[in-house]
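Worked example

This section walks through a single chain of length 240. The input is the sequence exactly as stored; nothing has been trimmed or padded.
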Amino acid sequence: MTGSDDCCDKAPGFHWFRREADGTYAAKGEVLVRVSAIQAGPSIADAVKLQALSDELARYRMRVRFADWDDDGHVDILAVDTRSRGRIARTRGRWRPEGAVDAAAEVEGSPKVEHVDCQPVVIDWDGDGRLDLITADHVLPSRDARAYTCRVWLQRNEGQAGSPRLGPRRLLTSFENWGVTVGVDAADLDGEGRPGLLLAARTGEQAPSYRTAVWYHPRRRPPITPGTRRDAGPDASRQP
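Given that input, the structure is written out below as tokens.
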């Protein structure tokens, strides 16, 4: 069980917890994640105005996801550091959950960090046995718009075992009138054998009045055309 740093930490990483024999979770400390291509910013001492200080602290955000991305039998860290000029970073090979970890490699084909507004989702979305990537961003649909549109993007893994490579971004879905604080995940919650989207966002304008709500968007199997079989081919039971 882990939790990413989401604000104001000048040495961002993640906190991890181990499940004990009695079912409770014990905090085991923080692991710093060092990502290359980090932008240099003004020091806190130079941020005289309150807004400047707030903007500077907001630059330090770390979002991580764990997966065996290159299929080498070891869990990798996929890291989004909001100060980075590069793409989603990742570790290679073994690492230990203590001290600091270097995420020196990039996830080939992944979007630049500036276009990743929440924790990335790593899942076999199309059922071909390879891990795909889902990311989300937000955009104002027009100059006079007051509410953001959340866009969820899918990138299929077009590489081979041991050499993952993401294809172009494809718009999976979008949601209007959403704020910039959005969480995305994917899981098969309805037992259909296909992962659906989980989307979390604030439902109010300001604290303490706002609440966080979670919506589940299942992916239904397409109807069977008369005269065909469900297992007629590798894509017969899939949809984007």
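What to look for: The first helix runs from residue 50 to 58.
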